[in-house]
Design a protein that fits this description.
Structural class: alpha+beta
Number of strands: 16
Number of helices: 24
Radius of gyration: 25 Å
Shape: globular
Distance between the termini: 61 Å
Strand content: 15-25%
């Protein structure tokens, strides 16, 4: 038994990570319980050693790029697949096995990931990357550059490049996993939604066949197409870091500040150095079947905001990006104003307490998919108190609007000025205004949000930066309703 297979078989931490993956993917308790059994790992190891374990075709799935919500084929087709991300999902047992293999490879080969490649690293969070970028920007003067996006990165890496990467791993540490990796990336069978068969355009342009799915216990339609790295698969993330290792190494030798997070790249320097480095990088990408997307190029200077990893950065300033702002305001509005409009009446105090509880749970506690909550994600990077204060004011104005059922209030919009957010809205004539109900709502419900349990986002920000234990204690107090009114706003 080789070293990598031994880790797969015996390392209980890898097994625990695979079980957590299953739980995060909403496997049932009974299904998760199977992976606790040593016999499962004994059997899987023996099958891999004898080359008897084979991967089933993956399912083609769809996500809304802006909200990360799952979509059906019909919903994606209605958008003409714009702002839709395709990803591929394995059957459940395959998913756990591939995740365990990813854990093995990450432990053994993570040193191969270039320091300037920041994606999918376990010891480097998004906020650390964003803070590093902002720090580098703040140390430069009169910089110019680009933020670039690689077109359909996960779908476009050429098969010879993937095979060369697999061969590279095998040359460093030969393993029984080699045949499985070849099978994973060479298999062109993709299970599609039955909704696709009702689409005349799809049927006209694709040949499909029926495949018996052991997991669903029925025949499902299947097509054949090369899917490159197969985004959504755990190994795809690791390969995405490694296949451009030579590009990352080359860019590190150029007189520019360079960062890459999967398919997003920042290239900044003085004078024309960024333009020259970008051109050389584009030539190297072309050899791998990749190219930059000219429609998503953002020019960077010391006077402009650049969007990166869900944040906007300008020199040492960091604020929330437009898409993330939209998600946050949507959650706030959904629980308050939208609820009031749906019921066609003002919400009662008990209903408002539940609404506030739902918003703060999402912000500070999280869900099964986001354990730390959106607040912790934002607080780790944002340093623009003006913008954070606007979000807090907007939340309280939404609570007041729901309390009075007077819901004509402003929105929050991203801007490219001194700060990254501005409050306001457009009327039918295009005139900017704050909403006619805001002032009157505030007079009628002065102090209501705090009395019903709303915690100032600025207050929670300060607690977050006072230390993890302090922040967690404050979240616990908030959940228990133990904080006095005077402490909620600073």
């Amino acid at each position: 038994m080789d070293e990598l297979l031994e880790m797969f078989h015996m390392d209980t931490e890898i097994h625990a990570d695979a079980i957590k993956h299953a739980w995060d993917k909403h496997f049932t308790k009974a299904e998760c319980r199977l992976f606790f059994q040593p016999e499962f790992w004994d059997s899987a190891t023996q099958k891999i050693l004898n080359k008897e374990f084979h991967l089933a075709p993956m399912y083609e799935c769809y996500l809304d790029k802006k909200t990360d919500k799952r979509m059906t084929y019909k919903q994606a087709k209605a958008r003409n697949f714009e702002n839709v991300r395709k990803y591929y999902k394995s059957r459940k047992v395959d998913s756990v096995i591939i995740n365990a293999i990813y854990q093995v490879f990450y432990r053994k080969f993570s040193y191969l990931i270039h320091p300037l490649c920041c994606s999918y690293k376990k010891d480097e969070s998004t906020r650390k990357v964003v803070n590093r970028v902002a720090r580098d920007f703040s140390e430069m003067m009169f910089y110019r550059g680009f933020k670039e996006d690689i077109v359909k990165f996960f779908d476009s890496v050429a098969l010879p490049v993937i095979d060369a990467t697999t061969e590279f791993f095998d040359s460093l540490c030969p393993s029984a996993f080699r045949y499985l990796l070849d099978e994973l990336f060479h298999d062109d069978r993709i299970i599609i939604s039955e909704e696709a068969l009702k689409d005349p355009d799809f049927v006209k342009n694709n040949k499909y066949e029926m495949f018996y799915d052991n997991e669903l216990k029925k025949e499902v339609p299947m097509i054949r197409k090369f899917c490159s790295l197969k985004q959504g698969c755990a190994m795809a993330a690791f390969y995405a870091d490694i296949v451009l290792r030579d590009v990352d190494e080359f860019m590190s030798t150029q007189p520019v500040t360079y960062y890459r997070y999967s398919d997003d790249c920042i290239i900044v320097g003085k004078g024309t150095s960024a333009s020259k480095a970008k051109y050389r990088m584009s030539q190297m990408l072309k050899e791998k079947g990749l190219r930059f997307n000219p429609d998503k190029t953002e020019k960077i200077s010391e006077n402009t905001w650049v969007t990166f990893l869900g944040f906007k950065i300008k020199k040492d300033q960091i604020t929330i990006s437009g898409d993330t702002l939209k998600n946050v305001t949507h959650k706030i509005k959904e629980e308050t104003v939208c609820r009031s409009k749906q019921l066609r009446r003002a919400l009662t105090e008990n209903e408002l307490r539940r609404a506030i509880d739902n918003i703060q749970y999402w912000l500070f506690v999280g869900t099964r998919d986001t354990e730390a909550g959106m607040g912790a994600y934002l607080y780790g990077a944002i340093n623009d108190m003006h913008d954070l204060g606007l979000i807090d004011t907007y939340a309280k104005d939404c609570i007041r609007a729901a309390a009075t059922n007077k819901c004509d209030i402003y929105g929050l919009v991203p801007i490219r000025k001194e700060h990254g957010i501005m409050a306001g809205g457009n009327d039918k004539k295009g005139v900017f205004h704050p909403g006619r109900n805001v002032g009157m709502n505030k007079l009628k419900t002065e102090g209501l949000p705090e009395r019903l349990g709303w915690y100032s986002l600025i207050h929670m920000y300060k607690k977050f930066h006072s230390g993890t234990d302090v922040y967690k204690a404050e979240v616990l107090r908030m959940r228990n309703g133990e904080c006095f009114e005077g402490e909620k706003n600073d």
